[in-house]
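Long-time lurker, first post. I've been practising inverse folding by hand and with some scripts of my own, and I keep getting stuck on stretches where the structure tokens seem ambiguous. Below is the full token string for one chain I'm working on. Before anyone asks, I'm not after the true native sequence, just a reasonable design that respects the backbone. If someone could post their per-position residues I'd love to compare against what I wrote down in my notebook.
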């Protein structure tokens, strides 16, 4: 595999992306002393995952070609599948599961002197802070490959388009090179030392960054879509009563309101929290400690994996019920599917709030209607596992 950017990426995709997407709304600044442009394979480049276009941000800003490890669900899509596989030369990874094939493919790419890009979080953040990363497993991965590792952070990527939000924002993205680990250092460092370095350079806290920079990101309706993230009111403990009204976050039950600022922070802490991450931590603990009665959701599709690249549709007309220990799908033809949490092997949220999970070694996927909250399904499953 050539270390140079493929012709399609260099002369078509990159210029079009810069002109039509980045120029109108995003300014990219590199803080790397020019070192990212000088990376030569084999090497690994690794950072935090905050935006659906993280890999494209890096693509557009540096000269070398990076073979990104991407979610396997993207390879199943009719449009993006051939594009990221054959033109961007990405490497598939099934989210939420150990994947020996992915490790073999990364190793093969490195032996071909490629640069491999990783987002160890596996999925992009919902609230601005890094997900819990298995730093030990990540450190071990670096030791297995024994190639230079470049740690970078994407600062402001979350604020440009929070995962839950309806609207994109205008603002500045900083790509910051934080540390380079050489092959010699990887060989000499103890695992605990490597874990510490990995944690220091991959962890990202949105509030800390905004406290230092006070960087504004603008759009017309900052709070629209907030119900996709927040579904427990900290004031009255009502469920699924949170909604956005222009720049305000509101509860329809207790009428509490707060303004979401241009820094994606809560202006007055009216709900008891200043950040969305703090609120999200509260609701995860609340559903772990309490029996929750959720509203029934209307779904867009419900399907199962047919093979490694295709899905088979089960229904596009169904209702979905989230319970304490299971998920129930009620189809329009009166047929029902029940999935006990204790038998669900893994669960992740992928593109457009769709949920993928393995149940008795079979892959299933479902998506609710766009305005609904899919995150609570993942968090309720995690709460169940935390109790058992």
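-- Answer (accepted) --
I ran through it position by position. Result:
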């Amino acid at each position: 595999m050539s270390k140079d950017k493929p012709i399609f990426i260099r002369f078509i995709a990159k210029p079009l992306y810069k002109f039509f997407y980045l120029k109108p709304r995003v300014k990219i600044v590199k803080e790397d002393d020019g070192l990212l442009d000088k990376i030569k394979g084999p090497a690994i480049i690794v950072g935090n995952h905050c935006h659906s276009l993280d890999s494209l941000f890096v693509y557009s800003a540096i000269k070398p070609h990076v073979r990104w490890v991407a979610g396997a669900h993207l390879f199943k899509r009719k449009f993006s599948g051939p594009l990221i596989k054959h033109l961007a030369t990405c490497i598939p990874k099934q989210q939420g599961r150990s994947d020996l094939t992915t490790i073999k493919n990364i190793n093969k790419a490195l032996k071909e002197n490629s640069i491999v890009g990783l987002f160890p979080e596996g999925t992009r953040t919902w609230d601005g802070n890094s997900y819990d990363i298995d730093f030990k497993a990540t450190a071990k991965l670096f030791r297995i490959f024994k190639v230079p590792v470049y740690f970078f952070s994407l600062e402001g990527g979350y604020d440009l388009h929070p995962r839950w939000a309806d609207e994109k924002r205008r603002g500045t993205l900083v790509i910051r090179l934080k540390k380079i680990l050489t092959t010699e250092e990887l060989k000499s460092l103890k695992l605990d030392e490597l874990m510490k370095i990995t944690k220091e350079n991959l962890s990202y806290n949105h509030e800390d960054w905004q406290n230092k920079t006070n960087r504004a990101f603008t759009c017309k309706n900052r709070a629209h879509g907030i119900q996709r993230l927040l579904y427990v009111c900290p004031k009255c403990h009502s469920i699924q009563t949170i909604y956005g009204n222009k720049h305000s976050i509101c509860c329809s039950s207790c009428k509490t309101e707060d303004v979401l600022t241009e820094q994606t922070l809560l202006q007055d802490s009216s709900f008891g929290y200043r950040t969305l991450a703090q609120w999200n931590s509260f609701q995860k603990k609340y559903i772990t400690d309490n029996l929750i009665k959720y509203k029934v959701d209307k779904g867009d599709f419900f399907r199962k994996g047919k093979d490694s690249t295709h899905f088979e549709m089960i229904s596009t007309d169904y209702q979905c019920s989230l319970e304490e220990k299971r998920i129930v799908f009620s189809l329009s033809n009166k047929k029902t599917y029940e999935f006990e949490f204790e038998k669900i092997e893994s669960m992740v949220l992928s593109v457009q709030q769709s949920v993928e999970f393995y149940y008795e070694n079979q892959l299933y996927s479902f998506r609710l209607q766009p305005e609904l909250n899919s995150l609570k399904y993942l968090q309720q499953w995690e709460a169940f596992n935390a109790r058992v």
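A couple of notes from the structure itself: Residues 297-387 form a domain with the PH-domain like fold (CATH 2.30.29.30). The mean pLDDT is 91. Happy to go over any region you disagree with.
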